[in-house]
Write a structure and sequence with these properties.
The protein is built from ten helices and two strands, in the order ββαααααααααα. The chain is mainly alpha-helical and 320 residues long.
């Protein structure tokens, strides 16, 4: 008999009986989350009902994420070497080596398709990238505002140092001989709360996330402009870029996750999404968050032990 289903509801079997066509499950009716749409009658390209590790990632995605992870592992090893030689800090160097091993393991899993790492990261990025770019635009807007404030006579450097000093008590400052030793642990502790708040900012309808992005942009733009006008913008770039290329993407990723979650919640309330959470969404989002936090940790090691070395090498006058 014919298997043709003209109305999409019944199909004719070989025995001549008409049976109801199999209806897709609630989870399978959710189309690609990267598109943010629902497709009731067609199964998605990323079925949420399948186990997270049940699919082999595409060859391109696997190679791409593996290459990135291995590159980050090399940066971690370089940081470990500089930490051990220039700072003679064995424990911190060991921490950087451990981070390199973590990135290396991530690259190996992405290359082999283990645990669906490459597929999860690729799908997570596809779903969140527009929101990450939105967070990037907010930060860039803040930088422009911060720079414009300088022309109005506003200098936020004192505010920045006051905020920094609040993280240390007087005893620590005196014991350091008037100097503060900024370790990787310090930067990890300082940067992790904003990272988490950027994600959980969805609970404030995104206001907290927007505030973090814009405020940090204003601070960076204002201080970079003020100091750059005094000592030149070359040293400023050398002092910001080495760790900034890891720290800022980490914060942008966290903000993108927060904005995406808010959008999903709005879709759920509006009725265009059947479920707020799915296994696949949680898996790929968790992978992206962990990857972003590892970038934040790498930024902490680079800022504490590598940035100054690079800046003083390029601009010897900074050491005076």
């Amino acid at each position: 008999m014919s298997d043709r289903r003209p109305d999409g509801e019944t199909e004719t079997t070989d025995s001549g009986r008409h049976e109801p066509a199999e209806r897709p499950s609630a989870e399978s009716r959710e189309s690609s989350d990267a598109e943010g749409r629902t497709a009731p009658s067609t199964p998605p390209s990323e079925p949420d009902s399948s186990p997270p590790g049940g699919r082999e990632p595409g060859e391109t995605a696997g190679r791409g994420w593996a290459t990135l992870a291995f590159a980050l592992a090399l940066v971690s090893l370089a940081t470990a070497g500089t930490t051990a030689t220039a700072h003679d800090t064995v424990l911190a160097a060991a921490g950087a080596v451990a981070l390199a091993v973590g990135f290396g393991a991530l690259g190996a899993l992405a290359l082999t398709g283990g645990l669906g790492i490459a597929a999860g990261l690729a799908e997570g990025w596809a779903e969140h990238r527009l929101y990450v770019w939105f967070a990037t635009a907010l930060f860039a807007g803040g930088v422009l505002i911060g720079g414009a404030l300088v022309t109005a006579g506003v200098d936020l450097t004192e505010v920045f140092f006051e905020l920094l000093m609040e993280e240390f008590d007087d005893e620590e400052f005196v014991e350091g001989g008037g100097e503060i030793e900024l370790s990787a642990t310090f930067f990890i502790v300082q940067n992790t709360p904003p990272f988490l708040v950027a994600i959980l900012g969805a609970l404030t309808l995104g206001l907290a996330t927007v505030l973090i992005m814009v405020f940090n942009g204003v601070l960076v733009g204002n201080i970079a402009t003020v100091v750059g006008l005094e000592v030149g913008f070359g040293p400023i770039v050398a002092l910001l870029v080495p760790h900034g290329i890891f720290e800022l993407p980490a914060l942008f990723i966290a903000s993108g996750v927060g904005f995406r979650f808010l959008h999903r919640a709005i879709q759920r309330i509006a009725g265009s999404r059947e479920s707020l959470f799915t296994k696949a969404y949680l898996y790929r989002t968790a992978l992206l968050v962990v990857f972003g936090w590892l970038l934040l940790v790498l930024a902490a090691f680079v800022e504490a032990y590598l940035t100054i070395v690079i800046a003083e090498t390029l601009f010897p006058g900074l050491a005076e």
